Structures are given as C-alpha cells and as structure tokens.
Amino acid sequence: xxxxxxxxxxxxxEDLDIARLRHVRPRYYGxxxxxxxxxxxxxxxxxxxxxxxxxWETTGQYLFWPxxxxxxxxxxxxxxxxxxxxxxLGVLCAVGRSSPNPVLRWVAMFYAWFFRGTPVIxxxxxxxxxxxxxxxxxxxxxxxxxxxxxxxPAFAALLGLGLNEGAYISEIVRAGMLSVDRGQHEAAKSIxxxxxxxxxxxxxxxxxxxxxPPLGNEFIGLLKTSSLASIxxxxxxxxxxxxxxxxxxxxxxxxxxxxxxxxxxxSIASVGQMGLERRFGRGYGAVLRR
Amino acid sequence: MMRPLVxxxxxxxxxxxxxxxxDVTLDVTPGExxxxxxxxxxxxxxxxxxxxxxxxxxxxALWVNGELTGYRHAAGALYPLNEAEISRQRRVTGxxxxxxxxxxxxxALQNVTEGPMQVLKQSAAEARAEAKRLxxxxxxxxxxxxxxxxxxxGQQQRVAIARSLAMHxxxxxxxxxxxxxxxxxxGEVLQVMRDLAASGMTMLVVTHELGxxxxxxxxxxxxxxxxxxxxxxxxxxxxxxxxxxxxxxLRTVLTRSA
Lengths: 290, 258
Fold this sequence. Notes:
The structure holds 2 protein chains of 2 kinds. By secondary structure, chain A is mainly α. Chain A is 71% helix and 3% strand. In chain A, strands 1-2 form a two-stranded antiparallel ribbon. The longest helix of chain A has 32 residues, at 66-97. Mean pLDDT of chain A is 90; it is low at 286-290. By secondary structure, chain B is an alpha/beta fold. Chain B has 9 helices and 12 strands. Chain B has helices at residues 44-51, 83-90, 108-118, 124-137, 153-165, 183-198, 210-216, 234-239, 244-257, and strands at residues 6-15, 18-28, 33-37, 59-64, 67-68, 71-74, 77-80, 93-96, 171-175, 202-206, 219-224, 227-232. The model of chain B has no long low-confidence stretch (mean pLDDT 94). The interface between A and B is medium-sized, with 25 and 34 residues.
C-alpha cells in the first residue's frame, strides 16, 4: 500500500456511513431506580415522624428555652476549650515524638498510650473524683485548697476531654509532620533557620494541609463526646434537655431539640473546616488559585 | 596565596559503618568555581552536605570562611557546637538541591524573602525589594506571585538559586542542580549558574554536566569511593587524566551521552 494513500480510501462505503452516525450518550437506568427508591424511603421516614407520637409544637417551644441555650453555650465552650488544650498538647506530644531525646520520646509515647488506652468516661470520672486520691491541693504550710473546690464539673470535663483529645491529636499532627518532605527541613536549615523556626514557618504550615480534615473530624466528634461530661454533672446541651424532660415528661420532644442544635453546631463547624482547608491548601492543586 | 574559603583536611564521614568520605583534602579559594564529578555513591553529595553541616563530619577538620565548622577544639579534642552556632555558621553558605526543595505553600517571592525576613530580620519592604531584584537576575520577575507548583522544574530551580542568594552567602553549593530536570530545561539553569560564576561567586558544583564543568569550572575534582582521586584544571582532568579510574569514568559518561 502506498504510504500516501488517504486512510479513508481503504474503507468500504458502509464503514464510512457508520463513521458518520450520531453518538448516543449512555443512559444509566440503575441510577434513576436508586433515586426513586431513596426518595420513597425519605418520604416514608418524614411522614412517619410527622404522624408519629411527637408533639412538634412542644419541640418548637423548647427550641429557644433559656436552659437549652445555656446548655448549648456550655457544649460549645467546653468543646472549643478542650480542642484548644488538645491541640497544644497534641503538637507538643508530636514534636516530642520526633525529638532526638529518648526521654522526651518516651514521655510522649506514654502519654498517648495512657490516654488512648482508657475510655473517656473513665477519665472524666477519675478527674471528677480526684479528691478521693488527693483531698488537698497545694504546698503544705504555704497555700492549700480542698481539691473538691478546684475540681468543678466544668474543670474536670476540661481536663478529661482536653487530655484525651491531645492524645489523639498528637497522632494526627505526627502524621502531618511525616507527610512533609525531608528536603523541606534541609532547605529551611540551608537558609539558616533553627529547628524551632523551621517547624513554625515551614513544616507546620505544610502539615496543616494534611492535618485539617482529621482535626475537623476530631472537633465534630468532640462536640458530641462532650455530652459524656453530663455524667459528672456538667450542664451541657444533652444534660439540659434531660433536666427539662425530667420535669415535663416530654422526652422525645426535648431529645429532638438537642438533636437539632447538635446538627446546627456541627454544620457550622463543617463550613469552618472548609474555610481552613482552603487557607492551608495554598500552593496545591485543586485550590491553587486564590 | 589567598586564604582559602573552604579548607577540608583529611575529612571523613561514615554512615553505620559504611565510609562515605575518606581523607578528603581540598582547598577552594575565593572566586573559584570547583566542579566535583564522579560516579554515584562516590561521596560528592556527602562532601557538599558536610560543608553545609547537613551532615556532621566524624574525622578530620573543615574550615569555612576561616572558621572551624561544627566543632571547637579544646583540651586535645574537638567538641561539637550547639544548634544555634551551627545555624550561624551555615549562613555563610547557600545550598541548591537536586530536587529544588522550594517551600510549596509560599509564592516565589515569599520563598526568597523568607530567610532574610525570618533569619536576618530584615524589614518586609527591604526583603521584597531585594527579592524582586534577585528574581529579575534569574529571569523570573514575572513569576514572583506564582506558587512552586505553577512553575516548571527549571523555573523552580532558578527561584531556589535566588532564595539562596538572598542570604548573601560567600559560597554557593550546588548538588546536582540539573539532574532532576527535563533535558530542555537544563540550559536555563546552567545559564544562571554561568552568570553567577562570572560575577565572582565562589561555587562548589556537584554535576554530571561535563560541558559546564569544562566551560565554567576553574578546577575539576574527580571523586570515587569517598576519596578525592584527582584534582586539576578541566583540560587536565578531561583531556589527559592521570588516573585509570578517572579515565574509565569519563569514557563511560561520554559513551553514554554520545
């Protein structure tokens, strides 16, 4: 065959007709069936709850009840405070884990092992009952207080949740630090940076990109885990709605109120997380353009 | 003779029993461009990293800018310097890496201003003006606001050179600066290095670019198995090597690239 023959010339006329035909896009009947089934199910659930034995108007009345709002504020601040404590502890622990000093490494490992190894609820109960171990707190002869006066439910909750959170966050931060290329440390050193400065300016900002999604996950988890503090008498959102239904007997209505507020807070936190991801994603692929 | 800027005397370094550098002795005078060639694993990169103290030497002594690096001697032994002193000593040298190692979360301009602002404590305005001048010098003033991911390998390496120069080093170390680049991007980086050499910068270049070594290098060092095998002018080393190992290496490299 001559190399200069037009390629079409070797085809039969009917092939040329076929090549001219319109291309029909693929149809996905399975997807439409799935949508129909899911929609039917959603309608069923909504209708069941609407007709069920729930006084929705009671739920509405309690939505902005002062006790509920106080509980909501308590849930939010204890979560933010525990998260802040957790991040500080987590970063310290993660840096300790990568230290050349074996004692620091061991302390950091022991901390993570201890607080990840016991249930949060147990830790909360131990902090709350600390007075049983140490009735007094301070330096004998100089200044002392009764432990029960220091360890309020709120303080016990902060200690329990914060220390526990720190142990988990340390692993997240460590993973983030490991994700940063070794060449980044060397480049930072080569322009005269100390280890601390390199950590703060070069390593951590890059680790953040990897760390933010699981950290957001931790915070959302914490907003709900904080409800465990209700067992040591901390008036969080769940505890407040329980207090109200012990009085009024409207159990499900008040649980719906609590559920509603948890969803609202978690939704706001998720939006915040998206913003942070964009902030720390500077210079990377999908979010390259500001 | 001018006092050497780098003076290595019987420098040794081993990694877990493996000797990476053995008895390396070499002086580099100010303004000199020395190219180090040799097979991979010959210790060229390790030698460069020791000069910049990314590795700590464990035998011999190394002076940079007249100062004993990494150690101070007292009572018949060499005692290691602390982190802060090592950081201070490092500022005399700039280093350009094979894989660029730009900071990906910063723009080209921020990469260049980072050291001057954070380490030298220059004002933002001062650092930016200097950085713009340096980016212009490597031909990238139009990419000042680009992130590394938006730049080609050759452009990234040129920003990396500007980043090093911003610290006003007396000595520039290049660790195979073009090895990670696509063939058509090698030239632009070599041109920047050529200009830098012409400006009188003292340079120590680990490279496989024999053409660059011949054209720009004042001296060529051939290393093998952690030792300096032969030192001479580019013409001496490349046209008339004395050692069989040098001859063998040059033949392998030249037949491969032919």
